[in-house]
Design goal:
This is Dihydroorotate dehydrogenase. By secondary structure, the chain is an alpha/beta fold. It has a single domain (about 5-305, about 320-330), classed as Aldolase class I (TIM Barrel, Alpha-Beta Barrel). It has nine helices and 16 strands.
Length: about 325
């Protein structure tokens, strides 16, 4: 089988498949379906400085092509995480990424400092982009200057690698990635959920109590893929792609646009064992394509313009030959296998 090991900055993972924050809890909840060791890495549910009860119900709403959530970062806080969760991860043969979030910069700095000495934690992922806890305020990850400043402060508080999770709800996500890199980030996670809304027109009731929530699932993959591509073009640090991944083909598409690894989230709701099978399926696709190393796929996207043989300077799609119309059609969009 093809080699699947990948390097994500200073971190080496056995394969490019990570769980995404929020869908695997704190790891043990999913071990009956997918042993953590089958993944390249596992990302915790967001941990905050103090316990959070989260948003009122309903907090989940299924849509035609995904899920809208408004959980609100419910968790038991950093003390519980350090005292009760991290001990269960001792000896885990997989990369452990702890996702941290907060409403103030100081909270993120304190969280990073608290986790700096925890040997079980390999990477910190800064959640600067949650759409469900801002009380009408924009997430940090919509402001390049603020993002750079808080990343720099967190960088000073820890020696651990830092990934910054960005929101797609901006005009130029590449600018946000550049700001995170300037602040000292070691990697970019692209992307968090899109803002979405669902409503029952008969009753007027929204799908989630907060009216809008974070939209995830297969429907956001083209947006996530473009966002990851834009980030990968703009920064020299690794990009971890996330958003709508359900198949091995999806994984390889994210690698092709420049991602070093991927995270799988919403698809685990419908099939909790899915993330654990993806590495084997990626290997099978690479074997069938005659590719011996998954790293040979990374960044292979090409210029989309098609070039037709002919005299230099001749107009494309000359009247009557149909060539222009064929070129306009391009190639079929990539489909799942």
């Amino acid at each position: 089988m093809a080699r699947l090991e990948v390097a994500i900055g200073p971190i080496t993972a056995r394969n490019p498949i990570f769980s995404a924050s929020g869908t695997y809890g704190h790891g043990l909840e999913m071990t009956g379906f997918t042993p953590i060791e089958r993944l390249g890495g596992w990302v915790s549910k967001t941990v905050t400085l103090h316990p959070r009860h989260g948003n009122p119900a309903p907090r989940l709403c299924e849509t035609e092509a995904g899920l809208i959530n408004s959980i609100g970062l419910e968790n038991k806080g950093i003390d519980h995480y350090v005292e009760h969760v991290l001990p269960t991860l001792v000896g885990i043969d997989s990369i452990v990424v702890t996702n941290i979030g907060g409403e103030r910069d100081e909270e993120l700095v304190e969280l990073a400092a608290r986790l700096d000495g925890q040997a079980e934690v390999d990477v910190l992922e800064l959640n600067l982009s949650c759409p469900n806890v801002q009380d009408g305020k924009l997430p940090l990850a919509t402001d390049p200057a603020r993002s750079e400043a808080v990343v720099r402060r967190v960088r000073e508080a820890t020696t651990k690698p830092i990934w910054v999770k960005l929101t797609p709800n901006v005009t130029r996500i590449g600018d946000m990635a550049v700001a995170a890199e300037a602040g000292g980030a070691d990697g970019i996670t692209a992307v968090n959920t899109l803002l979405g809304l669902s409503v029952d027109w008969r009753s007027g009731r929204p799908g989630v109590a907060t009216v809008q929530g974070g939209y995830s699932g297969p429907g956001i993959k083209p947006v996530a893929l473009r966002s990851a591509w834009e980030c990968a073009k703009r920064v020299s640090i690794p990009v971890v792609g996330v958003g709508g991944i359900t198949s091995a083909d999806d994984v390889l598409q994210f690698l092709a646009v420049g991602c070093a690894a991927v995270q799988v989230g919403t698809s685990a709701f419908s099939d909790p064992s899915r993330p654990g099978r993806l590495a084997e399926e990626v290997g099978a696709l690479l074997d069938a394509a005659g590719i011996g190393d998954v790293r040979d796929v990374i960044g292979t996207i090409r210029d989309g313009r098609q070039h037709t043989p002919g005299a230099a300077g001749s107009p494309s799609g000359a009247a009557g030959d149909g060539a222009g119309r064929e070129r306009d059609r391009g190639q079929p969009c990539a489909s799942k296998t």
